[in-house]
Every structure is written in C-alpha cells, then in structure tokens.
Write a structure and sequence with these properties.
- With 333 residues, the protein is of the alpha+beta class.
- It is built from 15 helices and seven strands.
- The strands form two sheets. A five-stranded antiparallel β-sheet has the order 4-6-7-3-5. It has a two-stranded antiparallel ribbon with strand order 1-2.
- The longest helix is centred in the middle third of the chain and has 16 residues.
- The two termini are 38 Å apart.
C-alpha cells in the first residue's frame, strides 16, 4: 500500500523458458485489451514501458539493516524534519483544520505521515509507475500482486487524475507524496480541493485529504492519541506485550487483542509513565509494544497506533509518526 518498506518477497523457482520482457509485456497488453481499456491509452502506456534493472536489483538486495529504535528515531525524526514539519503545519493550518474536521483526524498526524513518507513531497521516487509495476510483475516473485497493481495504475490514468508522464514513484510502485500503491489510491485518494481530480503528486490538499481519509477508514479516533512511552517494573513479564514476529495482519491483530487491557490493569502490573508517575486515570485500553524486545523501550499503544499499523506494519515507522506528531505541537522554548 503505501511505503515500499512494507513489502517482502519470498524467493520462488524460476522457469528456464521465461519469455523476454518485450514478449511478456505484449501478453500483458493483450490482457489489458481484454479488460476493455481505451486503445489510445494502452498504446501510450505500452510504448512507454521500460525494464528497470535497478528495480530488480533493489528488490533482491533489500538490506537487513541491524537497527534499533534508538538508532532509527534520530534519523527519521531529525531536528531538520521536526523544523520542516512545524513550518508546514503552520503554513497549511487553516486547510489542515478544515480537512481534519471533515475526516476526523488531527492535522499533526497528517503532517507527520506526509513528512515521513516523502519528506513533504520532496522525495517521491522518479520511476515511471507503469514501468516499475510491469518490471516487478515480470520478475515473477509476486506476479499476481504487481500485475493487478499495473491494471490499477491503468484505471487511474483512464480516470484522468494524472498524466502518464507525471505518474512517478518508487521502484515498487508507491506513488506521490503519500506513497500510495495504485490499489490504495483507488480505495483512499481524495479530491481535497474540489477540482475533480485526485492528485497526490502535486496537490497538497489532495494529499492531506487522502491521508486523512485513509486513517478515518481504519478507525481513527480524533479524540485520542497514538500512545506513550512507559517504564516497566523490574522483573516484568514480557509475555504481556504483543509478541514479535512477522505475521499476516489478522494474526497480528489477534496478538494485539491478547495484549490489550485497561490503563488501570497496566497500572496494577506496575507500568508507569516515563517520568515514573502514575498512568492517566482514564477509561482507555492499550496494548504493550516492545519494538526491540524486553530489554528495549516500552510503549502503551492506543487504537490509533493500530490504525497507523495498517498504513505500515512497522513498530519503528509508526512510533516515529507518533513522535513527530507530538513534536509538531510541543511547547517550544
């Protein structure tokens, strides 16, 4: 959906008789013709297709970087990014407040996601989206997924939201300032300024509305926040936390439900604010997250954290969104 970081690819066997890229895309065009796309659109798209060897190399060599939250957060939520986020929050505040009210999402979270996905629209990727998706489909390790995303990209072009030459993004097909995959664009992109187009590449109001609508559709609570860092007592049973490991979303949600309990119950287990004070006396449920295991930092996460995990199921990414959102409106002095 969104950021390329959320995709992983399992190695499968390859066919020795695999066709070349031109033959593969010719067959892909036949499939597209059978779906009824306009001939002129197909001619333009398929005549533009390029094989991106860089995309194949990037996919096969995604590094397993040894990272901890303590090394990740300073890079993602740097002083420069905090400053830029605050500047843009103030610049667009009237529009953000209107969009925030429309969708029920606090503006600071919209700005935080915008900043972390594309550095406020400065880095969106410069790959042609149809070419990137055709390349990844041709690679074959997730052919069905990428082929469908290719057809989704055709739908977006057919609807007139973006010109072919402007449909740019990452090597894996994430597009625009919000880094939506084409399927996410079709499901969540919004026309934020009422001009009849959904332009997540150059129109900030469309970007803001699209981010807000996505979160709204994932159950965002406009009256709540994302979570808080907490202190655990000595000898705390880490089994109370969400157990780590890569899982399908439904399985991960089951682990969330197993961990979730009231703030009062967490208090009884000895969990305290980072300052050492008692937890808020509010009727809230939270799950416990240990991004780096029992010896790392601990967080009580509310339902909005779960919504953000639908955007990108990475504890590091979601925690960075929360941190940046908090710092955007933090008292300065």
């Amino acid at each position: 959906m969104l950021a390329t970081s959320q995709f992983s690819f399992a190695q499968t066997s390859t066919d020795d008789a695999k066709p070349d890229y031109a033959t593969y895309t010719a067959a892909l065009k036949v499939e597209a013709q059978a779906k009824g796309y306009d001939a002129a659109l197909l001619d333009a798209v398929f005549s533009s297709l390029t094989f991106y060897e860089r995309a194949i190399s990037a996919d096969k060599s995604q590094p397993e970087i040894v990272e901890t939250l303590n090394t990740y957060l300073p890079k993602r939520v740097s002083e420069t990014r905090i400053r830029m986020a605050r500047e843009r929050y103030q610049k667009y505040l009237p529009q953000l407040e209107e969009i925030g009210q429309r969708y029920g999402v606090q503006p600071r979270f919209i700005i935080a996601l915008w900043g972390l996905e594309s550095s406020f629209g400065r880095f969106m990727g410069n790959f042609s989206i149809p070419s990137a998706l055709a390349t990844m489909a041709y690679e074959g390790r997730r052919e069905t997924f990428f082929k469908q995303e290719f057809f989704n990209a055709l739908d977006i072009l057919a609807q007139g939201h973006i010109k072919l030459e402007d449909m740019k993004g990452s090597w894996a097909g994430a597009m625009g300032q919000s880094q939506f995959m084409p399927s996410s664009f079709l499901a969540y992109a919004q026309d934020g300024d009422g001009d009849g187009k959904k332009d997540i590449w150059t129109n900030e109001l469309d970007v803001f509305a699209s981010i807000a609508y996505y979160l709204q559709q994932q159950g965002w609570d406009n009256n709540g926040t994302w979570g808080r860092e907490v202190l655990l007592p000595k000898g705390f049973d880490a089994g109370h936390a969400i157990q780590r490991g890569s899982l399908a979303r439904n399985e991960w949600l089951q682990r969330w439900n197993a961990s979730e309990r009231s703030l009062a119950d967490w208090h009884k287990l000895g969990v305290r604010r980072l300052s050492g004070e008692q937890l808020p006396q509010r009727d809230l449920a939270a799950a416990l997250i240990l991004p780096d295991g029992p010896n790392g930092r601990a967080f009580l996460a509310y339902n909005n954290y779960k919504s953000l995990m639908h955007w990108n199921r990475s504890y590091y990414f979601v925690t960075s969104v929360g941190y940046l959102a908090d710092l955007i409106v933090a008292e300065q002095g």
